[in-house]
Predict the structure of Neudesin-like.
Amino acid sequence: MSLDPADLTYDTTGLTESQLQSLEQIFKGTYKAKYPIVGYTSRRVLNEDGSPNTEFKPEDQPSFTIKDEF
C-alpha cells in the first residue's frame, strides 16, 4: 500500500478484477467493519462550484444501510 500523493486517488479505472476484489475485501472487512459511516467526501455532497448537491441522498449510496448510521 502506498501513501504517495500520486497514488492516492478515487479513480479505479484500469485496475484488474483481482485488484478491485482486493480493495472491496479490505474496505468491507477492515474499514466498513470498524467505521461503518465516517462521512462523505466533498466530491459526493458538493457541486463543482462548491454549492451543496441537493440531489445527494445517503440512502442511495452503494454499500449503505440505515443500520450503519446507528
